[in-house]
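Continuing the series of single-chain predictions for the mutant panel. This is the parent chain; the variants come on the following pages.
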Amino acid sequence: MAGTPLKVRWTARRNAVFANPKFQYWAAKLPLIRRIARSRAGTMFDLVVGFSYSQILRAVVDSGLLDVLKHGPLGASEIAGRIDLSDDATLCLLRAARALDLAEEVLEDGWMLGQQGAVLQADEGTQAMIRHHRLLYRDLEAPLELLRKDRSEATELSRFWSYAGALHGAAEAGRETTEYSRLMATSQQFVADQVLAAFRFPARARLLDVGGGHGAFLGHVGRAYPGIELGLFDLPEVVENAREPLASEFGTERLSFHPGNFFRDSIPAGFDLVSLVRILHDHDDGPALDLLRNIRRALDPGKRLMIAEPMARVPGAEAMGEAFFGLYLWAMGSGRARSAEEIRAMLAEAGFSASKTVPTPQPVIASIVVATA
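Parent structure:
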């Protein structure tokens, strides 16, 4: 072990101690560290059975149980008739939901929403995400097979997000299109809330949202800052679909529309601020750097780029960045979650003069990096 860094030696020793059954028995006996040992055991148990929790959550959402419990207290038999399950199956689901604080038995056989259930029942955006995750779970049924696949091979998620499919409203039978629209509208609100809570926009400026889709993010900013002029850059068919709804709310004099492909076409110049909202992490390093260079060429010195998306290695949100989004984007076939430090290094390589991170209230939803041209 000579020459081995101290951190490596310490980590190896720690792991050997923690894995020793005698240490585990001893730790469980000592009052001072029993709570820590139990917490770690609980965390491990949650990792082992986490998929079951997710499927309970999905069953609660898909069955409509949350909406039924909103009008409780109700007995299990009455609930069974409303969610099309047998009495025994309903009771099984209610008890599982109770364990996750989604349901609560306030009286004997009197069921209502639990605290987490009350929050979730009122949050259509999170419910939309839970329904959407069925695609990820299908791809993760054989995780090693997924990781061994060439990323160009089709998956459930890649088919959903295909630029020829749901992303531009051309999904088969319209089902994926509807799900896509709902998912984007609600999830963009989550990100917009974080951005508006953490980043101070200029009172009067020109903002261009690159890859802004149907304008959900622009709408949130426009309502919060009436003095900002709003620009949308996306593929021609996307911009065309966004034109009328945005114009009806904000008026044509406040808006500009810029159809194009941000990998092939120049980004429009003359804007004070460019936003990239959940765009960079969708692309591999080469295309992502090309996009940043394209934006840099469009910005005059002193103008800014704001990047908002879930990021890796954020304290308090580590699992969301590299565990969830790491595999989600792998299954999608493109992109990866990057740390703020990695993004800032890419920004410097793209020619930006400076960059900084901006803390958000809920980094599990999104983090922010702002760069200056």
